[in-house]
Amino acid sequence: MVWRAKASKVLDGLKYASSHEWVKHEGSVATIGITDHAQGHLGEVVFVDLPESGASVGKGSSFGAVESVKATSDINSPISGEIVEVNSKLNETPGLVNSSPYEDGWMIKIKPNSPSELESLMGSKEYTKFCEEEDAAH
Amino acid sequence: MSDVRRFQTAPFSMLVLMMKQQAGKLGLPLMNLLRLNGTPILQQLHLEEKLLRTSSDNWCIINDGTDTPAIVMGVSGKPSELLEVGPVLRDRIPVIRRFTGGGTVIVDSGTVFITLICNKDAVPGMQPYPRSIMSWSGLLYNEVFRGIGDFKLRENDYVFGERKFGGNAQSITKNRWIHHTSFLWDYAVGNMAYLKQPARAPKYRLGRDHTEFICRMKEYLPRSVFIEKTVESIESYFSVNPTNSEAIDASQGAEFVHSTMLLTRQELEEASASQLKTIGVSSV
């Protein structure tokens, strides 16, 4: 059986990391989750392991993991900061990451250390092209 | 049709075959091979997690049996849901929660462990996602079991026909992945009684209990032949470099904090209490 990914949804107004996480910066808070491309490739998410509020996250470093198809996959923070809120709904309903990766499936909210870190991330057009090229190369 | 065009339009399995044919001309990535015998499974898992997170090499670890029986759950495993905790406590069976996903196994000297830890670009054309990794590992083991049994990768399990003989699991980081398997060379029927039927099970299981669902590899091929054929199959993709534990200890400097843990007696007693409470509620 050949498994092919369908075209994934990319939202304008968000910034994207090459490891397929998104970040939405609004005022003093940045919300982080994984993209539709990532959730489609990961399969059904059955468990989400997230840190506690108050923990620090580093740019490009892992802060948690999702479990899908017998695999844990690291989630990496696109920017550094301090976690101010964690999405507790994902404890009972991890499938929100699949069904609503940009809304109800958000994972953490952080107070960014340095908003300028957002400038090195991809915009929606760049990320869309990145995903197409990555899928085409494999 | 040019070679480039053939690569671009080929399905993944054909792509892998073409890459293997080219590999001899292009040179293969290096893979360190560590062969262990009877190493405790907790020690093996700690080593694997450390190599995944701190090494930049590719590794194959083969542990030919573990010293004493142990239960190993996946990262999200809850003992109250997965185990008959009363007998586990009574018989003092160690319970480990490992760092990879997937289900619960009970392992002992009849289990052969094969682990692959790779950089994400080590296998050409393979994306570092669960299904892609498993699609490749299915091809790897297809070579091992060619002409032996009715081997398949079925709903992410390694099976002969309708029966599972290998439980596998994975962990994927930004730049690396691990795929490890516990192969049921042989098992004690009594040990399976410590495991409940999991709520999440593949469709092909059809509600069968453990003894109807699994089978023993020893009915299909000799133990040493399985291990040697696995190494041969890996050699199609990697230049295998045998190493030993002393060499690993010498090269791995920094202390590493494992997430793989042995559950405490207190944790198991709490799980048992929770399990009894649930049974009490159901019987009212």
Automatic annotation (TrEMBL), chain A:
Cofactor mode of binding and number, as noted: Binds 1 lipoyl cofactor covalently.
Primary localization class, coarse: mitochondrion
Domain Lipoyl-binding positions: 29-111
UniProt keyword terms in alphabetical order: Lipoyl, Mitochondrion, Transit peptide
The keyword Mitochondrion belongs to this UniProt entry's keyword annotation: yes
InterPro entries: 2-oxoA_DH_lipoyl-BS, Biotin_lipoyl, GCV_H, GCV_H/Fam206, GCV_H_sub, Single_hybrid_motif
The protein's name in its UniProt record: Glycine cleavage system H protein
Assembly description: The glycine cleavage system is composed of four proteins: P, T, L and H.
TrEMBL record, chain B:
InterPro entries xref list: aa-tRNA-synth_II/BPL/LPL (IPR045864), BPL_LPL_catalytic (IPR004143), Lipoate-ligase_2_inactive (IPR053264)
Gene3D superfamilies: Bira Bifunctional Protein, Domain 2
One Pfam family, short name: LplA-B_cat
Taxonomic superkingdom: Eukaryota
Domain BPL/LPL catalytic: from-to ranges: 56-242
Cross-referenced SUPFAM superfamilies: Class II aaRS and biotin synthetases (SSF55681)
Name of this protein: BPL/LPL catalytic domain-containing protein
Organism: Xanthoceras sorbifolium
